[in-house]
UniProtKB/TrEMBL annotation:
GO biological process entries: activation of innate immune response; cellular response to exogenous dsRNA; DNA damage response; negative regulation of double-strand break repair via homologous recombination; paracrine signaling; positive regulation of defense response to virus by host; positive regulation of type I interferon production
Organism (species): Geospiza parvula
Transmembrane segments: none
Record-level GO cellular component terms: cytosol; nucleus; site of double-strand break
Protein name: Uncharacterized protein
Alphabetized InterPro entries for the sequence: Mab-21-like_nuc_Trfase (IPR046903), Mab-21_HhH/H2TH-like (IPR046906), MAB21L/cGLR (IPR024810)
Gene3D superfamilies: 1.10.1410.40, 3.30.460.90
Stated family: Belongs to the mab-21 family.
Pfam families: Mab-21, Mab-21_C
Molecular function in Gene Ontology: 2',3'-cyclic GMP-AMP synthase activity; chromatin binding; double-stranded DNA binding
């Protein structure tokens, strides 16, 4: 009775050995066939070959096997030979199901895993760990736009909740298209501004001899071509050349200075703007300029807005229904002299725009704008001036490429300006949603973070137009890191921290809000306030 059992057991063992050989042969590379990914078969020792052929484990003891189904004539003509022993023929080994040849299935699985969208990003823009590769992955359907499940404020999204990168990029491009200014609106708004401002500039020159040499210079996001939403705000600098001035630091930031003349100015009209200690008073100059403008706008359809506490700008309001435009006029001193020592280690653009470009920038004039000192409450002392680099920033953003042909008509396109627009819009939307908590933040914070990002990733290939979502999240990750550390250095003055250590709670609040937006597909981009 044991003899048939022994022969059957030997047959099964023989089958297992043959199965291992088949699996080993199938795992060998086939000449002329290139697989996109090398996928190792499971080791036979792990499941004792059951990993390759699970059907072996389901057949049971040889004496309890059911009869094999009748084979078709085609199968009977199979060239496979029966294994014979010394005493006769053994039964034909059981035929493996169709799923036995695992190599083609594994190859398909490998290709699917290669094309499968990566898992969602963690907070700060970092890539989440990739999911483990499955031998037989289920088909994945990309999440629909706007259908991302939200996670708690400040939490990290679970892997797979974020839409795939293609959907991210599509959503961001849709937002950018909404932010683009219509050419007709831009033309009408700029026509109004260009009608009013030259008239005012000429009137200011004629009214006061000290202002006779002022020149108009455009500044701000509109002229940097990164204005978002509507062309309803313009910044105009009225630049006054000054000579032989002395700059004395007013604090340890390296950004604020007292201005005085080394010699008595030739134009005696300057004397009325000097304090008793010889320092040039920003308050007196702004007051004189404001009075001239208020008198002149009586002849045109322009009004002067009330003074904003702590703001050095004189704001004009131009109304021509349906348009309502505000123009900030900023009094600026221009000095043809060396930049202060506090700027020596700043403007680290050698790897981005080149050493020659940095040298050319540093040969330009220095600009100073009026800066108030908040003594207590709403009482401001206007006796200091702040270094301004808006003319340099405008040039860098306009000619932003590591190569000279970046974003030219026949050159490769990048997404730098798109990232800056999205950063500005994100902060603007969050400020509308949380005005009290975020009142101390301004667009210059994200602009500075963007310039630092351009230095960290200097090559045009780092900002390929098709990588908008990745580049934007890199910038955002850097800004969040600065907020968490309460450390954002001025781009031109490294010793000057734009994030006061006294406002750490506000910094962390904004960091949490940005992380929430990042982990949930930026829902704030689609909200109206």
């Amino acid at each position: 009775a044991e003899a048939p059992h022994g022969r059957a057991l030997a047959a099964v063992q023989h089958l297992v050995v043959n199965a291992g050989a088949v699996a080993h042969a199938a795992a060998q590379p086939v000449q002329g066939v290139h697989l996109p990914h090398e996928v190792p078969l499971p080791d036979a020792a792990e499941g004792r070959v059951a990993g390759h052929f699970p059907w072996v484990m389901t057949q049971g003891h040889p004496q309890h096997r059911a009869k094999a189904p009748a084979t078709s004539p085609a199968r009977r003509r199979s060239p496979r030979r029966e294994t014979r022993g010394a005493r006769g023929s053994f039964p034909r080994p059981l035929q493996a199901p169709a799923a036995v040849p695992m190599v083609p299935i594994l190859c398909v699985s490998s290709t699917s895993a290669a094309r499968e969208p990566p898992a969602g990003r963690a907070a700060g823009g970092a890539e989440a760990p990739p999911s483990s590769r499955s031998r037989a992955p289920a088909a994945r359907v990309p999440a629909a736009l706007g259908s991302v499940a939200a996670v708690p404020d400040g939490a990290v999204a679970a892997a797979g909740r974020r839409p795939p990168p293609a959907a991210d990029a599509l959503r961001l491009r849709e937002v950018l298209s909404r932010l683009s200014l219509l050419r007709e609106d831009v033309s009408e708004a700029s026509t109004l501004v260009n009608t009013v401002v030259p008239h005012l500039v000429q009137a200011i020159r004629d009214k006061d001899s000290c202002f006779s040499s002022i020149e108009r210079q455009s500044a701000g996001s509109y002229y940097e071509r990164v204005k978002i939403s509507e062309p309803n705000e313009f910044d105009i600098m009225l630049v006054m050349p000054v000579t032989r001035i002395q700059l004395d630091e007013s604090d340890d930031t390296g950004a604020y200075y007292y201005v005085s003349f080394k010699r008595s100015p030739k134009e005696k009209g300057w004397l009325k703007f000097l304090e008793e200690d010889g320092k040039l008073s920003a308050f007196k100059m702004l007051q004189a300029l404001r009075e001239i403008i208020k008198q002149e706008v009586k002849n045109i359809k322009v009004t002067v807005a009330r003074k904003k506490a702590g703001s050095p700008a004189i704001t004009l309001q131009i109304k021509k229904p349906p348009l309502e435009i505000s123009v900030d006029i900023i009094l600026t001193l221009e000095a043809q002299q060396s930049w202060p020592c506090s700027t020596q280690a700043g403007l680290k653009i050698e790897q981005w725009l080149g050493t020659k470009k940095r040298r050319d920038f540093r040969f330009r004039s220095i600009y100073l704008v009026a800066k108030s000192t908040d003594l207590f409450g709403n009482f401001f002392l206007w006796n200091t001036w702040r270094l301004s680099f808006s003319h340099i920033e405008k040039d860098m953003i306009k000619n932003h490429g590591n190569s000279k042909t970046c974003c030219e008509s026949n050159g490769p396109k990048c997404c730098r300006k798109g990232c800056l627009k999205l950063l500005k819009f994100l902060l603007e939307q969050l400020k509308r949603k949380h005005p009290k908590e975020l009142e101390k933040f301004c667009s210059y914070h994200v602009k500075t973070a963007f310039l630092h990002s351009c230095v960290m990733w200097p090559n045009d290939t780092d900002w390929h137009l098709g990588n908008l979502d990745h580049s934007f999240q890199q910038c955002l990750g850097f800004f969040v890191d600065c907020l968490q550390k309460s450390q954002l250095t001025h781009f031109f003055i490294p010793q000057y921290n734009l994030l006061s250590q006294e406002d750490k709670a506000r910094h962390h609040f904004l960091s949490r809000k940005i992380s929430y937006e990042l982990n949930n597909g930026f829902p704030v981009f689609h909200e109206n306030y």
